[in-house]
Amino acid sequence: MDHIADGLEKAIKAIKIGVSSTEQEQLHRELDQFLDWLEPMLEVDPGDLEGLLFSHDAVNVLREDSPRKSGLAELQEAAPNFAGGFYLVPKIME
Prior knowledge:
Elements: H1 3-15, H2 21-42, H3 72-78, E1 82-83, E2 86-87
Antiparallel strand pairs: 1-2
């Protein structure tokens, strides 16, 4: 068994999903194709190029984030819903 098939089998067991042998073979082929695509890029020597964090030279125009003192009353007033000492947020799950 090659390292791709071995890794794929371990991943399937770790995430505990049901994958048929046909689906596993398809995943293996797709991973092989991805590695064939990726391999030439990994062989490129970037030389002295510095890595990029962003692809543009934009400058952050937001205000500087600095701590400031505020009282509990001010924080409660800023909250859309505050009751019983708690910030009330919209329900996201039934």
